[in-house]
Amino acid sequence: MTDISAKIAGVELENCVFNAAGPKDVTLEELEAIAKSASSAITMKSCTLDPRTGNAEPRYYDLPEGSINSMGLPNLGYREYVNFTSVLKQHGKPVVASVSGLKLEDNVEIVSAFNDSEADLIELNLSCPNIAGKPQVCYDFEQSDEVLKQVVRVCKKPIGVKLSPYFDFVHFEQMAEILQKHRIAFATCINSIGNALVIDPEKESVVIKPKGGFGGLGGKYVKYTALANVNKFHELLPEIPIIGCGGVYTGTDVFEFILAGASAVQAGSVFMQQGPDSESVYAKERLRKIGRFHGEIKDV
Ligand SMILES: Cc1cc2nc3c(=O)[nH]c(=O)nc-3n(C[C@H](O)[C@H](O)[C@H](O)COP(=O)(O)O)c2cc1C
Questions:
Q1: What is the rounded distance in angstroms from the CA atom of residue 115 to the CA atom of residue 71?
Q2: Where exactly are the structural domains of the chain?
Q3: What is the rounded distance in angstroms from the CA atom of residue 290 to the CA atom of residue 198?
Q4: Positive/negative CA dihedral, 229, 230, 236, 241
Q5: How far does residue 267's CA lie from ligand 1's centre (Å)?
Q6: With b meaning 16 or more CB within 10 Å and e meaning fewer, what string describes 154-175?
């Protein structure tokens, strides 16, 4: 039988595809729907110290080939997600906690709380582009270094980072050095491409309300940037599993990420648009190719 399983920081995944933090994973009901789907793990919404209602609506918009959003981290506050882990674990799948404290001390407190939970992996979100007045931490290398230093010190679970896309080789190298220094267990590339602007020419207006219409771009528009980020980090950090995310709609997309060097793949916009069963992502005839792939991506 074809093997499409994956392993991230010692955590076994039955298949290499699971949901990305954010889309349809805020409430316990939504998380249980993911638990019952083909997703091989259950990633929970990025959580903050206190519950947040998020940004003003409309804050999400479907595009022909993806999405733009400026949700502003609407979530129930970390205590709820800590409690959810024991319920979710009953479904027999790994649970991934996504942590997105608004400041360093928040991240330390939240990660410490997940130490005593049933979460299998922690994904520290250093890349949210949608909080007004809060820059994406992972574009500030000094701050990233400090956050990881403090958070890794208290964390007793395998902890990885969710990164924004980088566009410059020097930035890949700087971040890779930081991840290596702090012995990060995995890296997820990429979060949405921050501060895109979508304009509706009929209505002569922007399509989402927060930040004057600026929001994070996801879906097919970002796949090639995501593949590049996966490939570069895999090259720089061959020992660290890279989870690919960005523009995954089909089993073929998944295969492309595996070719680029991903150990597993997450699906975001497609979950928002098709729900957690997203049949196309799990198209077995495409995923089967993964089981036959054992090498490196070839040059032309
Ligand atoms: C509605 C929505 C909410 C999101 N919320 C989060 C979040 O809370 N934490 C996070 O790390 N990424 C969040 N993201 C980013 C996705 O996890 C993913 O990185 C990005 O959308 C690219 O993947 P895609 O092309 O499959 O959508 C969100 C994306 C969308 C569309």
A1: 27
A2: 6-55+73-193+220-291
A3: 35
A4: positive
A5: 9
A6: ebebbbbbbbbbbeeeebbeeb
CB 234 within 8 A of CB 255: no
| Enclosing H/E stretch for 7 | strand 6-8
Asked if 172 and 202 count as a contact pair (C-beta separation under 8 A), the reply is: no
Mutate to test the pocket of ligand 1, among 192, 223, 266 (most ligand atoms within 8 A of CB): 192
The residue among 298 and 82 whose pLDDT is bigger is 82
**CATH class, range 6-55+73-193+220-291:** alpha beta
Which residues surround ligand 1 with Cβ inside 6 Å? Answer: 20-23, 45-46, 60, 67, 69, 71, 73, 98, 125, 162, 191-192, 218-219, 222, 245-248, 267-270, 272
Tokens linked to 199: 């304009």
Joined together, the tokens standing for residue 191 give 């979060």
> What is the distance in A from the centroid of ligand 1 to the CA of 242?
16
Give 290's contacts (C-beta < 8 A, 6+ positions apart).
Answer: 2, 4, 16, 254, 255, 258
Residue nearest to atom 13 of ligand 1 (CA): 22
User: Tell me, what's the pLDDT at 68?
Assistant: 98
- Read off the pLDDT of each residue in 59-68 and give the average, rounded to a whole number: 98
- Report the nearest atom of ligand 1 relative to the CA of 188: 19
CA-to-CA separations, 276 to 35, 57, 71, 81, 178, in angstroms, rounded: 9, 23, 19, 19, 34
Instruction: Give the Å distance between the CA of 118 and the centre of ligand 1.
Output: 23
Instruction: Tell me the catalytic residues.
Output: 128
d(CA 249, CA 279): 9
What's the pLDDT score for residue 133? Answer: 82
Q: Tokens 């709609």, residue? A: 249
pTM given for the model: 0.97
